[in-house]
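Record type: monomer structure entry
Structure origin: computed from sequence
Chain ID: A
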Amino acid sequence: MQKYNASYNGADFWDHPFDGITPAEWIKRRTLQQLVEDKVKIRIMQQYGVLTGFDYKQFLKAFREENETRKMRMQQGQVIYGVRQFDESSFYEYLLSNALLETERRMLLPDPAAEFHRRLERKIKEAKIQVISPGAPAIP
């Protein structure tokens, strides 16, 4: 917001447009874009058998199990890599990153990462976005 010399504490900050869009609307659009990207990634990972199911209940189970494993290893004096305990957000990124690497490996192409990202970009462009909230502007 330095670009606009805007105050974060201003009463109208979230509703004042900058370059034609309010910070609140920008966050909504960016969040929706990230959700679409993640959903497309998850679908590709499922196609390659990396994620057999991915709902919040399964996520929480894996999150708790990973933290319990890390706790047990630390108590036993074993080496752990990364954080001692995950929060939900960092575990989500950890889980998706590892699943992405495994998906790329399973694609068995000369450059699996490039192929994955090419397919991902195509799927994101093809994704149909439906905003459920009434009156919300469509995302181009």
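Annotation 1: The chain has a mean pLDDT of 84.
Annotation 2: Residues 129 and 140 are 10 Å apart (CA to CA).
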